[in-house]
Structures are given as C-alpha cells and as structure tokens.
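Students often ask what a 'structure token' actually looks like in practice. Rather than answer in the abstract, let us consider SIL1 factor, a protein of 143 residues. Its sequence is given first.
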Amino acid sequence: QAVPAGSQVRLNLQTGEREAKLPDSENGKSDTREERRRKRLGKVDLDSNSFTSQELKKALAKMKESEKAERKVRKRFPAHEEEVRKKFRPIEQLKEEFEKLNVKIETDYEIMVKLISKFNSSASTLDEKVAALYDLEYYVHQV
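Now compare that with the structural description of the same chain:
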C-alpha cells in the first residue's frame, strides 16, 4: 500500500495490522526534506493501490532529469573526484603492486567462481565439496 512521504508506519503486534499516521502539518508547512521528496516524484496519486503507467513514466523522467543535474554538478566540481582519487587506488593497480610482493589478491566474485567449479568438479571428494559449499555460503551471505 502506498502512503504519503513522511508518514509514520508501524506494525501493531496485538492485531497484526500495519498502521500509518499521516504527517502533521503545522501552519500548512511541511518538512523541507519531505517536500523535496514529493517534488522529485511529481504529482502521484498516493491513495490508489497501484500507479498508472503515465504516472510511473513521469516519475522516471523526473528521476532521470535529477540524475543529469547531479552529473552537471560533478562536472563543475572535479576537485572532489581528484580528492577521492588521491585517497583510493584502482583495484588493478593494487593487484599489480601485490603481484610484485608475491601476494595474489582475489575478489569475492573470483573466489566464488573457484568454489563453484570445485563443487562441480568430479575430481573433488565429498569433503572438498562440503567445504566448498560452506565457504560459498559465507560469500553468498555477504552479497
């Protein structure tokens, strides 16, 4: 069920029903953060159980416009990106540096691919397959 932005929603443990409290408006003014959320999505009928395709298209168009505006802001402030680049290095560069130290860095994805291939391998013993499943469960849980 769609509810207006800023509403308080709770689960009543005695009845098992979800309840929503509409935001209080003081002097006709609403919270500026909530107002910005409403403007971002545009006019949408929040009382209906579903949205029309036109409403969804308009909301998506507004989201795309705001994304373009954010890109323009990022272009105006490239110093921030330079600051981030100074603090962090690309993973490829880190891998090269660790290879020089004879240390191999693997991403979670690479490790998961190896575990799946070990599990699917007919040469693996039952204990190796069980261990691969336990390790795979750990990595999948992180994702």
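One point worth highlighting: The two ends are 28 Å apart (CA to CA). Ask yourself how you might have guessed this from the sequence alone, and why that guess would often be unreliable.
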